[in-house]
Amino acid sequence: MSEIKYLNALSVDCVIFGFDEGELKALLIKRKEEPSSGMWALPGGFVEPTESLDNAAMRVLSELTSIPDMYMEQVYTFGGVNRYPLGRVISVSYYALVKISDYKIQATSKIEDVAWLPLSEIKELVFDHKEILQKALSTLKERVKFHPVGFELLPEKFTLTQLQNLYEVILGVLLDKRNFRKKLLGMDLIIKLDESQIGVAHRAARFFKFDPERYKEWLAQGFNFKL
Amino acid sequence: MSEIKYLNALSVDCVIFGFDEGELKALLIKRKEEPSSGMWALPGGFVEPTESLDNAAMRVLSELTSIPDMYMEQVYTFGGVNRYPLGRVISVSYYALVKISDYKIQATSKIEDVAWLPLSEIKELVFDHKEILQKALSTLKERVKFHPVGFELLPEKFTLTQLQNLYEVILGVLLDKRNFRKKLLGMDLIIKLDESQIGVAHRAARFFKFDPERYKEWLAQGFNFKL
DNA sequence: GCAAAAGTGTTTCATTTACACCCATGT
DNA sequence: ACATGGGTGTAAATGAAACACTTTTGC
């Protein structure tokens, strides 16, 4: 560790998750440049010598979206020798959770196309990006079992059915409606609002919001989120 | 991502955990070179352009110990701009679990001293290594709750009291002896041997070993290790 | 009035917790 | 015989799982 010996290229790649139409989606870009022009890829970029990894990840996100302070977490660092075809590049991966309704694209010149793709429809990505996506998803799954981060994916006001649906999609299981509601209401984490859906062709659902105080507590200490 | 733009120095740092005399310990080296000569540090080294991150971590371990195939897992990547005083170095951290009885030092010329230090006695480490150690420990804590990795720290044959003691030390809680035994024996994970302690000034404890088949199952699927 | 989703309690079962005494061995 | 840790079971409480019908709204 005394003399700096080798230099390596270092990138960050971000898996940006959103929840929309009952599906979990990722924000992908279609590459405009070689290698692998025309394929879908995770948003990413090289780490500049003067920025921390977290800052690099935030920069990548803000070049693409205009969302302030979204939830973001480092996932894993991929360092296979041949993961990138043009030379050795190590990738530090992050995932971010965004309220998809807040989302606004800021297209940049390098990018041909940007889209929210449902995870179920993502077949192939450039390089090892599919593997990075899988790892981010499994990290999210683990995280969501014990910390209330799933809420970052919902709008400010949401119904209990939306919330249940979100957990079902992330965890890949079906949950019992009554047990789910019992558990969540018992956690004192959400607050019932005086507002309901309008214009729906069935009984209107109540909206809820999070109690930010309790949210912070649960986020720090974790819980046993067995539903 | 198309042209490789910036180069960064990249190191791996390893937190090597061992369990001995009822304590959790880490294998540290005393630096012989500047900067911070004479201070304790995590074993680490620069990542060579031709090796994967995992290989770099294994190389660091094998330069120090002669243990084949120990349990190893990536923890986190530290990329603060000023974490290393002589220039920008990003550190990918790993933790390893070793059966301390197997351990044999292979001193190298650069190292002044190598020692197993109990975590409770580790006050200060070079650079941000203390932070890396903390992160590795909290990752281990999380891991051990749902996967049977703690067993990697024990010798082939162990007593239930040793096992309980290990969990108590890692998790930082006291466990009930009867409940602990009930749970573990019910998991079908350990096998009672026909061998007991000898020469102890009290009733001799039975030795147990792991069932490697079940061990692999539990390792893959995880469990809810609420003790 | 019909379709579609919202909302609501109770019982059963499994898991977790709390708890205290006798046993084997070396000195 | 005494000190030291090994080994064992039961009851109470908590948490999870299973389960079906009524309500509200738009068409």
Descriptive account of the structure:
The structure is a homodimer of 227-residue chains. The first copy, chain A, has 227 residues and is of the alpha+beta class. The first copy, chain A, folds into 2 domains: 9-128, Nucleoside Triphosphate Pyrophosphohydrolase; 148-221, Arc Repressor Mutant, subunit A. In chain A, 27% of the residues lie in helices and 29% in strands. In chain A, the strands form 2 sheets. In chain A, strands 1, 2, 3, 4, 5, 6 and 7 form a 7-stranded mixed sheet that branches. In chain A, strands 8-9 form a two-stranded antiparallel ribbon. The longest helix of chain A has 18 residues, at 129-146. The termini of chain A are far apart. The model of chain A has no long low-confidence stretch (mean pLDDT 91). At the A-B interface, strand 1, strand 4, helix 1, strand 5 and strand 6 of A face strand 1, strand 4, helix 1, strand 5 and strand 6 of B. Strand 1 (7-20) of chain A pairs antiparallel with strand 1 (7-20) of chain B. The structure holds a DNA duplex (27 and 27 nucleotides).
CATH structural class of the largest domain in chain A = Alpha Beta
Radius of gyration of chain A, in Å, reads 19 Å
Mean pLDDT of chain A: 91
Sheet/helix structural class of chain A: alpha+beta
The CATH architecture name of the largest domain in chain A reads: Alpha-Beta Complex
How many discrete domains of chain A? 2
The DSSP helix count of chain A reads 5
Approximate strand percentage of chain A: 25-35%
Order of helices and strands of chain A: EEEEHEEEHHHEEH
How would you briefly describe this protein structure?
The structure is a homodimer of 227-residue chains. With 227 residues, chain A is an alpha+beta fold.
